[in-house]
Amino acid sequence: MLLALLSNRRSFAALTAPTCSTKCLRIVERFPPFCNAIIRATIEKGSPTKALLAFEFLHSSGALRPDHRTIALLLKASSISPHLYNVSELHVLIIKLGLQWHSSLSSSLFRLYLSRNLLKHALQLLDDIFVQDTDPFYGNLLITSFSRKEDVESSYMVFKKMPVRDKISWNSMITAAVRSSRPKEALSLYRRMIVAGVEPDCFSFSTVLSACARAGALCHGERIHRLMTEKEAGFESNPFLCSALIDMYSKCGRVDLARSIFDSVNRITNSISIWNSMITGLAIHGLGADALQTFDNMPKHAIFPDKVTFVGILTACSHSGMVDEARFYFNSMQRDFSIKPQLEHYGAMVDALARAGQLSDAYELIKEMPIEPDSAIWRALLGACRRHSRWDVAEMAMGEMRRCHSGDYVLLSNIYSSAKRWEKAEGVWRVMKERGVRKSKALSWVEMDGRVQQFMAGDRSHRNSDEIYRVLGELTRRAKAEGYVPVTEVTTKDVSDEEKEETLSSHSEKLAVAYCVMRNGAEGIHEIRVSKNLQTCWDCHGWMKAVCKVLGRVITVRDRIRFHRFQNGECSCRDYW
């Protein structure tokens, strides 16, 4: 009778009516296992929501004394029900019944929390699960889930709780660090993994190579390359590893080694990902002609470009001032390859036009876009306004951005300062203060003796700070003798030139170069490699050109946008950046 009443909504409503409920409850009281049968049958009939309603009715009436079988059925119903059921209430019920030590219930509840994206609740269950089962499976699942949300702190919390860690645990944690832009922590985790005796696999290598690329840690990357050669016989046939290697060497300033690997593995592994990595590597080094030549060679190897390829090609054109070529490839995408331009393609095309001073054409392209432009596209236009001294266009671009970063405000202020519109420049900083926007810290880092040393603008926290500043002062004195003149227009305050010069003198990349010279001496290093989280300023660019000539050494700076290779008083960007 009870099963029949549960078969439709009206019958279930009738079940709760006073005239019917008493008779049904007597049946349940005489046969307690019948409750579980009711819930199971309702689930099997494809009505998990009704099963949950039946439980609520039976439990609230006092007719049902749930056991672990009941809870297991409820968890199953909740996992497949399209309606959001309060999982926390089930969790509380499990604790009240003293069933939290039942392994199958804990694991089912854990999966249910994950499926509902209730990660913090799942985290609370881990201790109970690990008491009964040390299998790292549950911890690995939660680390990956937190990693997708870029919540690396919670990932670490899970990792520390795990009594047993396997290869997946370490790989997941390294991935979490890389996704959260913490490459130094990813490298540290990789070293701990090796010390723990866990053998890295292909996934380990590709992830940690990505960390090396982000950190500019060439020495680490070279060691990993050697280990790959030893451990992964025939890795040249793995397109993911080869792409990661090419990307790492390119982003660590050794595009020559990236090209060598590309040429050697391309005969073995003919994959679009390898070609994309090479084209992108050439693009960020400003080697536009080489990137286009590589693109033109693709048909000879039966490789056809995809949307990632065209992002690389358009970026290469942008960084090399090849505006006509950028137009050609942008139009060719859809005409010749049936690839519809996406936001990133429009962004690269706008950047190419704006860098070349064609701000009107860039603005018209934005207005003609069939998709709504995002902040990145307006930011490309804003960035070009500094080079071409168009504060009016900069104001318009800033006004179009839905979400402005601190760097956008700083850039607008710099544009006003270059035009000597001091009041407007100060006004930007007032707006930042009112809106609670804090300027991003300028960071530069170098790899020395296998360790990454990091510096902030005006940094005096290093134990050798006095010596670093002494070397910096000497380098600046010699640079001025070579013709360097501080570009005080990039400062945002209407103060004396001496005060402006003092502000410029301790930028983070200058400190990083001074540290390298201090450690090795002016004659002891062949090439200084510096990475920076923001775009380098005009003053630092001029300083690097003079200092590389003074030292007679190559200085390579990787900023947020591209590479600058300074040699013999010149830069590879030809002052086009």
Q: Which radius of gyration do the C-alpha atoms yield?
A: 31 Å
Low-confidence stretches: 1-25, 27-32
Average pLDDT rating: 83
Shape: globular
Taking the sheet with the most strands, its summary is: 6 strands, mixed
Instruction: Give the helix/strand class.
Output: mainly alpha
Number of strands: 6
List key phrases describing it:
single chain; 577 residues; mainly alpha; 31 helices; 6 strands; 65% helix; disordered N terminus; TPR-like_helical_dom_sf; zinc ion binding; PPR_At4g14850-like_plant
Please characterize this protein's 3D structure.
There is one protein chain. The chain has 577 residues and is mainly α. 65% of the residues lie in helices and 5% in strands. It has helices spanning 2-5, 9-15, 18-30, 33-44, 48-60, 68-80, 87-96, 103-115, 119-132, 137-148, 152-161, 167-179, 183-195, 202-215, 218-231, 239-251, 255-265, 272-284, 288-297, 307-320, 323-337, 343-355, 359-368, 375-388, 391-400, 406-418, 422-434, 465-481, 497-504, 508-520, 538-551; strands at residues 443-448, 451-456, 527-532, 554-558, 563-567, 570-571. It has a six-stranded mixed beta sheet with strand order 2-1-3-4-5-6, with helices on one face. Helix 4 (33-44) runs antiparallel to helix 5, helix 21 (323-337) packs antiparallel against helix 22 (343-355) and helix 28 packs across helix 30. It starts with a helix and ends in a 6-residue tail after the last strand. Residues 1-25 and 27-32 have low confidence and may be disordered.
